[in-house]
Amino acid sequence: MGDLLAELIDISKSFPGVKALDHVNFDLKPGEVHALVGENGSGKSTLMKILSGVYTKDEGKIIVNGQEVEFQNPRAAQDMGICIIHQELNLCRHLSIAENIYLGREPYQGLFVNQRKQIEDTRKILKRLDVDLDPTTRVSELTVSKQQMVEIGKAISTNAKIIIMDEPTSALTIKEIDELFKIIHVLKQEGHGIIYISHRLDELASIADRVTVIRDGQHIITMDYKDTTQEKIIRYMVGRELKEKFPRIKTQAGEIIFEVKNLTARKAVKNVSFQVREGEILGIAGLMGAGRTETVRAIFGADKKESGQLFLHGKEIHIHKPLEAIEAGVFCVPEDRKRDGLCISMPVYQNATLPNMEKVTVNGIVNTRKEIAIAEEMINELTIKTPTVSQTVKNLSGGNQQKVVVGKWLVKPAHVILFDEPTRGIDVGAKVDIYNLMNDLKKKGIGVAFVSSELPEILGMADRIVVMCEGRVTAELDASEASQELIMQYATQYM
Q1: Distance (Å, whole) CA 291 – CA 307
Q2: Which of 43, 82, 366, 495 could form a disulfide linkage to 217, CB 3.0–4.6 angstroms apart?
Q3: Which residues neighbour 346 within 8 Å (Cβ) at sequence distance 6 or greater?
């Protein structure tokens, strides 16, 4: 135990109707990156919330630096040198970098904050991380990747030796991921232990020393990363072999279902045109800031259009707000499911019927029995893992939340479904479920278009690919001619 920063022994935790963790073991050494992987709902986040003091365990032992501890709150864990960097960053955007790093721990000179010392200490931390930022810069002016560096700086300022990173690359570009990995290597050399949670298994090869897989709340295996493969890790994660990572099906592309002509929306979307055909999946590729999400939002009526036309089955339709899109049968699965796709404090059955109230109301009164029946049908059809239809959506895993977002649209007759980053933040097994769902829509003749920042996903699932750069379409490629290199060439081709 002397050479371990932390050890979790036989940790168990239950919530109403769910045993989240069942005698799980995990440990962390100084100067290593220990990857923690598993499907959504496997118990990864619960385990880390116990280590970081957010949850208290039901059973088991927590040993930090050779000493058994009981954490009643996050501050107690922080005092023992444990820091968690959440996927959704926890910063005060209106404050400066220095103010964020030392928030609640400001250096005082008499009755006043010693701002000079705070700024100078922050400058030293940023230099140590080889990050070129002015400590007085307001956080709202930073990119997501730079905000992440501020979170890491905050961890170092508390003398944290154990740093937990939860999906740190989910919103980063390839270049930004490289910058993050450089900092991770610096932290390793300084003796910090890093617990790294990610669904992007391919990136573990660059940083992971060991990998632990948990499934259904149980410890499955811990391995040296050099002794395993991605395929083995996936098999341990899902408990079965996924024959195809991208289960593309071949169908004959038919008539044009949906057409976008010369769409312009503010500064982000400039004269965009494309078509969606029956029996195909259209991929929309590009780098961050290319205008992909803005295009989808403008089509759906969530953002204002300045000009352009939309055609459904050859007939022009006019969409100025989401309700008009829904009435036309043009649906959107948004990028941020928690903010734009779900009412996370409401149960599954109410989320399932929110856009379908006409099916469950009589004379203005909601028929709860009908709501539950519709939700149960959706749960069975999409294999949504939930103890009951009354489970609050925020308590579902990311993959199951995403299925609820999709499922609520399938209650209505759909003509076109636009997916914006449909697999962001969900595990490999749930990704395949989403891909198969897209295939089912494709077979039914429903128009499918999806935005993705993951080029392997675009290449693996799209029959045709539209590439965007700086708000414009720079290329349209058939899947048979597309490659990562070609897409990247057009994604950086400013016009």
Answers
A1: 16
A2: 43
A3: 392, 393
